[in-house]
Amino acid sequence: MIKPDGVQRGLIAEIISRFEKKGFYLRGMKMMDVEQSLAERHYAEHVGKPFFPALVEYICSGPVVAMVWEGPNVVASGRKMIGATKPHESAPGTIRGDYALIMGRNLIHGSDGVDSAKREIALWFPEGLSQWQSCQN
Ligand code: CMP
């Protein structure tokens, strides 16, 4: 998910381009405003942490671009392409390493595992995805 700061900074195309050039297939995408309840369910594992209210407020502060990417090891590979959560720890060449400065504005969220990805796809795309598969399969 490209977070509100990624959208506001005009980085949508740059981020999508990195995933496409890597060879991943864009299986679903939508730009949307985020209801507080969706943000809270998405970040359920962080409920009760001190940064939770600000995190929810941030995700709801403007439109996001929710995406589903498909391809070999896309979850693990995508996490590497995104870079470490703390932008000052993210390597140059990663999205956060190249474009983000602070954790509270780290541009993009990527699922941290296949189970999380399945849960998050169901949450963000309750209507389901196109049945077309990548022509690379
Ligand atoms: P994300 O990859 O979306 O997953 C959880 C998010 O919580 C993370 O990116 C950060 O934006 C945010 N986050 C995690 N830890 C902290 C923290 N200590 N302070 C503020 N925000 C945090």
UniProtKB/TrEMBL annotation:
Gene Ontology MF terms in the entry: ATP binding; nucleoside diphosphate kinase activity
Reaction equations catalysed: a 2'-deoxyribonucleoside 5'-diphosphate + ATP = a 2'-deoxyribonucleoside 5'-triphosphate + ADP; a ribonucleoside 5'-diphosphate + ATP = a ribonucleoside 5'-triphosphate + ADP
Annotated active site: H109 (pros-phosphohistidine intermediate)
Keywords: ATP-binding, Kinase, Nucleotide-binding, Transferase
Alphabetized InterPro entries for the sequence: NDK-like_dom (IPR034907), NDK-like_dom_sf (IPR036850), Nucleoside_diP_kinase (IPR001564), Nucleoside_diP_kinase_AS (IPR023005)
The protein's required cofactors: Mg(2+)
Transmembrane segments: none
GO annotation terms (biological process): CTP biosynthetic process; GTP biosynthetic process; UTP biosynthetic process
Residues that bind ATP: K3, F51, R79, T85, R96, N106
The enzyme's E.C. designation: 2.7.4.6
Xref: NCBIfam families: PRK00668.1
Family: Belongs to the NDK family.
Record's protein name: Nucleoside diphosphate kinase
The species this protein was found in: Chara braunii (Braun's stonewort)
